[in-house]
Amino acid sequence: MKKIERVAIVGGTHGNELTGIYLVKKFERSPNLIQRPSFETLTLLANPKAYEIGKRYVDTDLNRCFLRQDLENSSLSSYEAQRAKEIYGKFGSGGSHQADLVVDLHSSTANMELTIILASKQPFNLQLAAYLTSFHSKVKVLYSTTRNQGTPHLDSICEFGCTVEVGAVAQGVLDATLFQQTEELVQAILDYTEAYNQGTPPPVRDTLTVYHSIQTIDYPRNEFGEIQAMIHPQLQFRDYEALHPGDLMFLTFDGQAIAYEGEATVYPVFINEAAYYEKGVAMCLTEKQEVTI
Amino acid sequence: MKKIERVAIVGGTHGNELTGIYLVKKFERSPNLIQRPSFETLTLLANPKAYEIGKRYVDTDLNRCFLRQDLENSSLSSYEAQRAKEIYGKFGSGGSHQADLVVDLHSSTANMELTIILASKQPFNLQLAAYLTSFHSKVKVLYSTTRNQGTPHLDSICEFGCTVEVGAVAQGVLDATLFQQTEELVQAILDYTEAYNQGTPPPVRDTLTVYHSIQTIDYPRNEFGEIQAMIHPQLQFRDYEALHPGDLMFLTFDGQAIAYEGEATVYPVFINEAAYYEKGVAMCLTEKQEVTI
Q1: Tens digit of pLDDT for each residue in B198-236?
Q2: Which of B205, B237, B267 is the last residue of a domain?
């Protein structure tokens, strides 16, 4: 078993997601909170310029800048491309402070509760996620096979890693309850890692419910790309709940309901995430699976 | 009695408040929805550049650009200062399309429900507000004597006017329920105005509950201006509810609760509005008053 020697806790990959930013600031004021005997914990405010201007990003979404060939491409000069190289050069493989585990703290305007997005189904990641689900009833585990194809996220730079995605909370807003729950999650991750290093990881159930991303759904749009409908009130804030064929999905501005036309029951997440309007994503559909650990 | 000859419905004074923007777009596609026999209704997307970049404003808050001396000051050249002059030159006194009534559509991350913010306590405004409170149980009426001193808002450019402030909804997000309720409010305003012009305004109760803004409260901050606490979970989303001396107001990042130390019961609004962090406003305190119409 490989020991975890360094953990990186990252906030502010998106500059308007305040929960992670203020949590990193807190940990930087009180580093003792994240120290553990068997490994080092470092923190990072990933996109300080975006935080300064109160936006998700300056030039481009930092969390889509971690494709290996982009990190090696010296011609990419956007602010976020450069930050990605700096972050990889610090925490990535062969970096100045190579980390074994990265925890990237995000928030969402969707009702994601306390979501752990796994970068891979490595046994450590799965066991950690299983531990966290036992720790708090609002913890959900999300996994996407497509996540690391095409546009890998920040949490892909280390062998182990996860993204913490909490919500619903508006961009540019601190929700005290979510702040405290996110802090408890980070503490639980560090406690689990310490026990793992000591060879005494806490026992977890041998199956885990994982929501597996299978498809994104865009808003209905006209020929100019303008959206023609909103998330239906019956679906708003219903992330992780079953959506059956025929259930209502969108409501046009003229009041016409549009139903989900798929053939199978799915579990939508990231419903009405503000940052995804420009990405052509009204929600992500997932399948609910029981995974053996 | 002066007849109302032209009404201006304005959306997108803040570029990331989508409810008003998409409602104005809808009315521009279907102008028959806002036509009435006795007056003309015009629409305006007030800050199209801010909407394009998904931000509240480009250079400065457009809704603080309507001071008369600023409108006459040719040296002010920010995008919003210029837009304010254009808007005043169109709908303002002596403008190309001078309006008698302006309805400015906003949204908030605070739980403002369906708030009507009055620009003045003119009898028409009060009677309209009283009608709207009878129309929908979520309608609240907010008034601030300080609103038109210093930094008058867009709705100050006409004799009659109000700001519609709906929430809670995140910036950059459409909430279908709030969209429909806002549209119903606009229709009710137009219907009331038509009846008023016909000399048959619907009867309203002779008293009206008005929340009167008396003070703003900032977040606790350190010597660098950084906030030190969040809205307390017991206060989050409790806009328009009574806050008594000793009730909890803030929670520091270290988990210390901070109580409201005033001497009188107040009714906070704009609690945890994202756009007000930079303005030094965690909430506005109001007094609840019964006003005779």
Answers
A1: 999 999 989 999 999 999 999 999 999 999 999 999 999
A2: B205
**Rounded Cα gap, residues A159 and A125, in angstroms:** 10
pLDDT mean across residues, chain A = 95
Residue B284 token pair: 């506005």
* Range(s) of the domain holding residue B256: 214-287
In a domain, B86, yes or no: yes
* Cβ-defined contact of B175 to A255 (cutoff 8 Å): no
Residue A67's φ and ψ, nearest 5 degrees, are -65, 130
Please list every residue in chain B whose beta carbon sits closer than 8 Å to the beta carbon of residue A180. 255
For residue B145, pLDDT over 80 is answered with no
- The reply to whether B90 and B151 lie within a common domain is yes
B positions 41-60 inside 8 Å of A (CB)? 54-55
Residues B64 and B92 in one domain: yes
Number of separate domains in chain B: 2
User: Does residue B115 share a domain with residue B256?
Assistant: no
Same domain, B192 and B261: no
Question: In angstroms, rounded to a whole number, what is the distance separating the alpha carbons of residues A144 and A142?
Answer: 7
For residue B178, what pLDDT is reported?
98
CB A273 within 8 Å of CB A218: no
Question: A112 at the B interface (CB within 8 A)?
Answer: no
CATH number, domain with residue A80: 3.40.630.10
N- to C-terminal Cα separation, chain B: 16
- pLDDT above 90: residue B195: yes
- Going by C-alpha positions, the residue among B261, B257, B281 that lies closest to residue B271 is B281
Residue from the list A25, A171, A226 with its beta carbon closest to the beta carbon of B274: A171
CATH number, domain with residue A263: 2.20.25.160
pLDDT for the residue B148: 45
